[in-house]
Amino acid sequence: MKIGLVLDDSLDKPDGVQQYVLSIGRWLAEQGHDVHYLVGETKRTDIPNIHSLSRNVKVRFNQNRMAMPLPARMKTIRELLKREQFDVLHVQVPYSPWLAGRIIKAAGPETAIVGMFHILPYSKMVTAANHALARWARAQGSLRRFDALMATSRPAADFAKRTLRIPATVVGLPIDISKFAGAKPFEQYAKGRTVMFLGRLVERKGCQYLLRAVHRAIRAGQWPDDARVVVCGAGHMADELKAYVARHGFADRVEFTGFIAEADKPRYLASADVLVYPSTGGESFGIVLLEAMAASHGVVLAGNNPGYASAMAPRPESLFDPRDTAAFADLLVRTLQDKKAAKQAVAWQRQHVQQFDVAAVGERTLEVFEQALRRHQS
Q1: Could you read off the pLDDT of 140-188 as tens digits, one per residue?
Q2: DSSP H or E stretch at residue 243
Q3: Which residues of 121-152 are buried (b: 16+ CB within 10 A; e: fewer)?
Q4: Which residues, 6+ apart, have CB-to-CB distance to 195 below 8 Å?
Q5: Mean pLDDT over all residues of the chain?
Q6: What is the C-alpha to C-alpha distance for residues 355 and 258, in angstroms, rounded to an integer?
Q7: pLDDT-derived band of residue 62, with 50, 70 and 90 as boundaries?
Q8: DSSP letter string over 21-44?
Q9: Is beta strand 299-303 parallel, antiparallel or unpaired with respect to 88-93?
Q10: Which of 65, 117, 142, 281 is most buried, by CB atoms within 10 Å?
């Protein structure tokens, strides 16, 4: 099968949608399929069959930084599609009318269009923007070309139905479990206990709520003497967060690593006794939670937003309200102290994450592709 993975954004950065595109693309290629990447402005050359089809401008959307394509040349798109004759175009949704929308409209009648819906809105403004994009796609005519739509989670599928008016099949997000299972912890974290945050230092990801909860536990005399906090990531709040821990006198208990490379991520995750993701919303699923589970050493705790709740089901005791500082602090201390409960949680995580291995998600994705092709050709 010849498959084109369509993404308006660049493949030059390691964000969630890019990770999905690269993971599923790599697996499909390993199964013998001819995989191409039809993307926005991308400079990397280490991936075969990249077609960079537009210039991009950087914007903020759903409290993420992303690249939005400028209008792509229809002549270039038509020439590519005529030359490659794709069986399936797999479009990442929501999409821009200026790149993915044009690719869909230019696709030949023999090509099936399958979407993957990735988003849950963080605000009313983002919700309105998604409705506006959907109206634009309907007016452009590209939505009519979809033969199937998938979604990362049930909440994302429900939002897709409300905005696009297309039912979606929930397939989940894929991770390569082999990259994380068996990762060796860093030696500097061998002594004592480690609570870890790994993510961008922006409001939505909630690192500030973790630090407030730790500060409360320290003030109450509940925080273990041998417990440290390791904050992995970069973002515009970095200086503010460092100033907070310095101002409240517990900078000696918090390490800020800055940005960490993808290659180092498994070892950081494997070094933690507790992995904390206090996002307040805007998460369509939570691939970061799956990566943490696959590392298999620490207990994963997640902010109680719809996407993360979907990833953690059926284990609601691992969810918390990041803004409830007292309850959050109690949960952190309890998780650090209760070794029996931690052992049970890690055992559940190891079993639960298997259904999201790239091979399992890949097989479900191929089923949707094949059904879409049959539907398209009938």
Answers
A1: 889 999 999 999 999 899 999 999 999 999 999 999 999 999 899 999 9
A2: helix 238-247
A3: bbeeebbeebeebbeebeeeebbebbbbbbbb
A4: 210, 214, 227, 228, 229, 230, 272, 273, 274, 276, 332, 336
A5: 93
A6: 31
A7: very low
A8: HHHHHHHHHHTT-EEEEEESS---
A9: unpaired
A10: 117
pLDDT above 60: residue 247: yes
**This prediction's pTM:** 0.87
Give the C-alpha separation, 8 to 41, whole Å.
8
Phi-psi region of 327 (alpha: psi -120 to 50; beta: other; left: phi over 0): alpha
Q: CA–CA separation, 66 vs 129, rounded Å?
A: 15
- The answer to whether 126 touches 61, Cβ cutoff 8 Å, is yes
pLDDT in tens, 127-140: 888 788 888 888 88
Render pLDDT for 295-329 as a digit per residue (tens, 0 to 9). Answer: 988 999 999 998 999 899 889 999 999 999 999 99
Residue where the block lists tokens 């030949």: 108
Cβ 68 vs Cβ 57: under 8 Å? yes
Q: Is the peptide bond before 314 cis (omega within 30 degrees of 0)?
A: yes
DSSP H helical ranges for 47-96: 74-84
Amino acid type, 368: V
Nearest CA among 73, 75, 92 for reference residue 83:
75
Rounded to 5 degrees, φ, ψ at 357 are -55, 145
Interatomic CA distance for residues 319 and 301, integer angstroms: 6
